[in-house]
Amino acid sequence: MRHVARKRFGQHFLADQDAVGRIVAAVAPRRGDAMVEIGPGLGALTGPLLDHLSHLHAVEIDRDLCARLRQRFPADRLTLYEADALEFDFTILPAPLRVVGNLPYNISTPLLFRLAAVAARCADLHLMLQREVVDRLTSAPGSKDYGRLSVMLQYRYAFERLIDVPSSAFRPEPKVDSAVVRLVPRPAAQLAALDAESFGRVVKAAFSTRRKTVKNSLSGIISAAQLAELGIDPSLRAENLGVPAFVAIANRLHDAGPR
After folding, report:
1. Are 70 and 52 in contact (CB under 8 A)?
2. What is the DSSP string of 194-234?
3. Which residues contact 131 (CB under 8 A, 6 or more apart)?
4. Phi, psi at residue 233, to the nearest 5°?
5. What pTM, to 2 d.p., does this model score?
6. Which long-range contacts (CB under 8 A, 24 or more apart) does 167-172 make?
7. Pairing label, strands 13-14, 170-171
8. What backbone phi and psi angles, to 5 degrees, belong to 64?
9. Rounded Cα gap, residues 217 and 102, in angstroms
10. Could you write out the DSSP letters of every residue in 52-117?
11. Which tens digits make up the pLDDT trace of 99-110?
12. Do strands 170-171 and 34-38 pair parallel, antiparallel, or not at all (unpaired)?
C-alpha cells in the first residue's frame, strides 16, 4: 500500500537511486560495522546499506513505516526501534557507532545537539540535512551563516561536505535542497574546553544578541578588560570570533570559579 507522507514528522522520502548510490558509496559500510540509521522511512538507504552490513540498527518514529520495514527486513538483519530520535538513548547501541540519517528538517538542529552529546561513542556520522543547515555547520567566522550551531558543532566535529541533493530527489518534493555532510568526532585531546557547560553558555550568550559586540553580549559574564587580556577585541561581534576564542573565554570563567 502507498504510504502518505506525514507533515508532522517532516517526511520527505529519498527516491533518486543515483543519490542513494552516491550516499552509500560515501558512507562505505563494512560488514562488521556497528551502524544506526535515523529515520529509515521507506528503506531507500536501508536495503543498500544492508547489502554491505551484517546488521543494522534503525530508529523510526512512524509505526506504519516500522510495520513495513519489519515485513521487508528480517529481525536478525535489522533491529528496529520505534521511537523518537530526539528522545532515543543512543548509548544502548554498540560503540564505536556509525550514524547515517536523512534528518527531518523540522528537528535537525536539536537532533544535531543530541547526537553531539554522544559523539565520543561515534566513529563518524553521515547526515543528509537541509542545505542551509549544512551551510551553517561548515561556515567560517565572518560569514552570514556562522552562528551558535557553527561554533558548537565545529568544536566537537571535523566536517566534510560530500554531496548536494536537489529537492527533486525526494517524494514528496520539499521546497529546499539538501546536502550530505560527514562529521568525524574530534579526539579528546583536541577538546580544549575545561567545562563543556561553560563553553555552551558562553556561545549561547554571545549569539543571543547577534548584532551586539561581545563586550555587550557577554557583559554579565566577562569584562572588556578581561577579553582584551585574552587577546580578544571587545568591539568584535560573536560572528567574528573563531572557536578557540570561545574556548578561551569559557576557560577563563572556569579558572575564575563561581561569581
Report:
1. no
2. S-HHHHHHHHHHHHHTTTSBHHHHTTTTS-HHHHHHTT--T
3. 164, 176, 177, 178, 179
4. -70, 115
5. 0.93
6. 168/16, 169/14, 169/15, 169/16, 169/19, 170/12, 170/13, 170/14, 170/15, 170/16, 171/5, 171/12, 171/13, 171/15, 172/5, 172/12
7. antiparallel
8. -65, -40
9. 35
10. T-S-EEEEE--HHHHHHHHHHS-TTTEEEEES-TTT--GGGS-SSEEEEEE--GGGHHHHHHHHHT
11. 999 998 889 999
12. unpaired
Distance CA 34, CA 131 (A): 27
- Grid cell, residue 171, equals 517524494
Burial 163-201 (b: 16+ CB within 10 A, else e): bebeeebbeeebeebbbbbbbebbeeeebebeeeebbbe
Residue in this structure with the C-alpha cell 556509525, named with its chain if needed: 98
What the chain holds in terms of domains, given with CATH numbers, is 7-190 (3.40.50.150), 196-256 (1.10.8.100)
Grid cell at residue 130: 537541509
Cell digits of residue 126: 553521515
Q: Show the cell assigned to 247.
A: 574556548
Q: Could you list the pLDDT tens digit for every one of the 259 residues in the chain?
A: 566 655 656 678 899 999 999 999 999 999 999 999 999 999 999 999 999 999 999 999 999 999 999 999 999 999 999 999 999 999 999 999 999 999 988 899 999 999 999 999 999 999 999 999 999 999 999 999 999 999 999 999 999 999 999 999 998 899 999 999 999 999 999 999 999 999 999 999 999 988 899 999 999 999 999 999 999 999 999 999 999 999 999 999 988 765 5
Residue type, 20: V
